[in-house]
Amino acid sequence: MLPIAEGLLPYRWEWLRFDVTAGLAIAAVAIPSAVAYPAIAGLPAEVGFYASILSLVGYALFGPSRKLIVGPDAASMTVLAATLASLPLENAADRVAAAAALALIVGIFSVVAGRLGLGLVASFLSRPILIGFISGISISILVGQIGRLTGVRIESEGLVLPLLEIIRKASQIHWLTLAFAAAMFGLLVLLARLRSPIPGPLVVVVVAVAASAFFDFEGRGMKIIGSLPGGLPTPVLPSIGRLPLQELLLGGAAIWLVSVSSGLVGARSFGAKDGFKVDADRELVGFGAANIFSGLFSGFPITTSDSRTAINLAAGGRSQLSGLVSAAALAILLVYLNDALRVLPHAALGAILAFAALSLIDLQGLRETWRISRMEFGFALISMWGAISLGVLSGVVIAIAGTLLYVLLKEMRPRDALLGLVPGRPGFYKIHRMPSAAPPPGMVLFMIQGSILFFNADYIRSRLEDVAKAAPSGTSWFVLDASAVAQVDMTAAAMLMQWRADLAAMGQRFAVAELHKEPRDILDRAGFFEGPNAAPAFEDLEDAVRSLASKRADSSV
Fold this sequence. Notes:
This protein is mainly alpha-helical. It folds into two domains: 13-227 and 245-407, no CATH class; 415-556, STAS domain (Transcription Regulator spoIIAA), CATH 3.30.750. It contains 22 helices and eight strands. The chain is elongated. 47% of the residues are buried. Residues 433-548 form the STAS domain. Keywords: Membrane, Transmembrane, Transmembrane helix.
């Protein structure tokens, strides 16, 4: 059944002061991102509040975790921006409706995937590829702030073209905007180095609003966010009748994959740090409810918020009541204090987003990937290049293709080993690791450490031939240790049957040991255990060696 208020109930009243304190701290951290993140996708600032408020309510009611906090994140917003750019949207209202529809699509995908037990799909992007992809997105976000940081309208997209455009339009730079953006960025860096207990983005918002009101930045030509609606939205299904459904679904799938993958990675990281368990399938249901609530109230797709969750844990939040307190605080701010945000300069938003983008570039993760696996580091760079050079949606495709290619390369050439016995010691040993090991007389014991499927069948056939040709004279049995063979398909079954016949022509018999049920059923239906050269199958390798040694002795007599 769907979890109902599992993150809230049962509740202990001694938790109340911790949850209220944590909720107010979460709201303080949420204000800058609620205003700034919608700008990535070209959405009005108020929808950031809508998404932040209602998603917290949805997750509190249906999310399983007492500690995780959901909200906007930069990666999801960038994929959302790319999706919206691909749709025929005529005005700002269409843009808001499309974003809300995409939140509903992401929510439905998440709930269905959670109910079907497809939480593993959310881990489809490997950690190195996810690191590269999010780093590439971060660079795209950084380039996307050129217009807000300089006050120049940038029409180009991508990485290089906006840089060339700002060089051409250098005479149009609004130097007050650039100076103020640099000052706010420097303030963020300073507060981060001083490890300020007050979140840096919140300080920047307060300072920027005060400076803008005092010095009349709007009158001096600096762009401001303008007035926000003075109330909360009502539930409504977004009007998307004119939009292409296929593109909406494809865009929703891309947003879902990125947001859920990064969200579950973040959730598991916090779970490992704070000692709570994360169930991927149940989290998908929670994410789904949060996105559906956001979409029904004119919000946009959300996922786990790293910054808000970190604040919740640091402030000692005990349950999802902290999320509800945060939602209530944001609602009060939107209804009663929204005029204070009207004069917030775009330059401050650009500084906040640029600083957030730089913090998302995981140089340590890239260095660690380089140290551990050069191949995976290469895939991380491919994923980063796809997000930067080909656009975010194409980058998602590149990231998925990179994952598939990586898995394929790992499986195309599975490891193998010759096995032997060591005098006076039980068990079987890999001969290349244990020089004193030797195969039983008249036998070859060969182990394949991976599945045998259509894309690696020819390679495995060549390995079988090499081993058989190198076997000493007098070898009568070729025994395949299949304990590590998880899968066999029709192509592999046909290859093994042909190999069995070719081996018989060489004067050797084929046998299989420790074959799992699923590949055994495939081989059985293919007729592998029938005919004059039928391969005997043994439950374990010791039985095979003992039985075949006995047959060999009998035949010699």
